[in-house]
Design a protein that fits this description.
The complex is a heterodimer of chains A (225) and B (160). Chain A has 225 residues and is mainly alpha-helical. In chain A, 79% of the residues lie in helices and 0% in strands. Chain B is rod-shaped. The chains are: A mainly alpha (225), B mainly alpha (160).
């Protein structure tokens, strides 16, 4: 049942992405000010939403792991951390390309861009600590995840606190007609896709952990050489 | 295992198709923009040029040197306008011949930076597909490890 639901959601994502491509490139009108490069917006902003979801999931799971030391929370945190790196990279690269098109520069040390880069680097650090930190690195990584979690509201409100080149948060509520449909459909699909990838990665992380535990127990009991 | 491979293959094909759609869109727009000028291919560009001296018509013909030519141009312009008023078919023909050039100019302006859009979407899909491939590779490795552990366990039970 669960597996069927997973495959149904995956099929929905594939069909949905194809449909959003149609909406973005053929149904949504071209923006009068930003011209054609505004089309990047429809996947750039949803990737930021998914990044925030991944970082929040990773941070909360890390806090729960530090409190209760349950392996399942650590699995979720580890999986979400990797996805945060992926979607952070997508957000930064698409944003940089858009910046080159709109501002003529690949990068600006603007508050939102800088805090976003900081978050991504924290999450890269998280993944590296998890991978190469050795035994007991989970707690150190959990600390990094909490630091990343604290950066999320800073990124969101940075455009209100400081004067930035990056557009304000009022852009999304102002969308109308096919632009709004294309945008929100993209957001929903990317979030569903994120949940599917998270579920798959959590399953893998859990299996890896159980395998490791089984092997260690087998070695302790002299079953394996 | 077979399902995973199938899913992986499907995701790669979809990503390739999506990237191809964008590239296709890129060239389709390059073709669709001038679609309207099939009746008057290169002429409009030449037609637009003579319209430029229209501005001096507002100047009074008081200046000595350039004044004569300006006054002449204004007179020609007035004659042309009068002729256009008399002949609606000519007016329509002239307007149609310019329409394609105006459309092309607007289309070029609108499609500014399309390379950036294609680049952004390509990067996005490539990163996603690479991540999926790595994820499924990891799962495959894990399945192999589980199989090896099972073998070790069976061997250990047999030895006992």
């Amino acid at each position: 049942m669960r597996r069927n639901l997973f495959y149904a959601a995956a099929a929905l994502c594939i069909a949905g992405f194809a449909y959003t491509q149609y909406l973005i490139f053929y149904a949504a009108p071209i923006d009068r000010l930003l011209m054609f490069n505004q089309k990047i917006f429809y996947y750039h902003v949803p990737s930021a939403f998914v990044l925030f979801s991944a970082v929040i999931t990773c941070g909360i799971s890390s806090v729960l792991y530090v409190k209760g030391r349950q392996g399942k929370h650590d699995d979720i945190a580890s999986a979400a951390g990797e996805l945060a790196v992926l979607f952070g990279a997508i957000m930064l690269i698409t944003g940089s390309i858009w910046g080159k098109a709109a501002w003529g520069k690949w990068w600006q040390w603007d508050a939102r861009l800088t805090t976003s880069l900081l978050l991504w680097m924290v999450m890269v650090g998280y993944v590296l600590v998890r991978k190469y930190g050795g035994p007991g690195s989970e707690r150190l990584a959990a600390g990094l995840a909490v630091f990343g979690l604290a950066d999320v509201p800073l990124i969101y409100f940075s455009v209100r606190i400081w004067r930035t080149l990056h557009p304000k948060t009022s852009v999304v509520p102002g969308l109308q007609g096919p632009m709004r449909t294309a945008f929100w459909l993209s957001v929903i699909l990317w979030l569903v896709f994120f949940v599917l990838m998270l579920a798959t990665r959590v399953g893998t992380a859990r299996a890896e952990r159980l395998l490791e535990e089984t092997r260690e127990r087998g070695l302790d009991e002299g079953l394996f050489e | 295992m077979r399902r995973q491979n199938l899913l992986l293959a499907v995701s790669i094909v979809i990503a390739a198709l999506l990237a191809f759609t964008q590239l296709g869109f890129d060239s389709a727009n390059a073709q669709s923009a001038p679609a309207g000028d099939s009746e008057a291919p290169a002429e409009p560009a030449a037609d637009v040029e003579p319209a430029a001296p229209a501005a001096p018509a507002a100047d009074p013909p008081t200046q000595p040197a350039a004044g004569d030519s300006k006054a002449e141009a204004a007179a020609v312009r007035l004659m042309c306008e009068a002729a256009l008023k008399k002949d609606p078919a000519w007016r329509a023909e002239l307007r149609n011949s310019m329409r394609a050039a105006v459309h092309q100019e607007d289309a070029n302006l609108m499609m500014t930076n399309k390379k950036h859009v294609v680049a952004a979407y390509t990067v996005l899909w490539v990163l996603t597909v690479v991540f999926l491939v790595l994820m499924f590779g990891r799962q495959r490795k894990l399945t192999a490890e589980i199989a090896s552990l099972r073998d070790d366990l069976e061997k250990a039970i047999k030895d006992d």
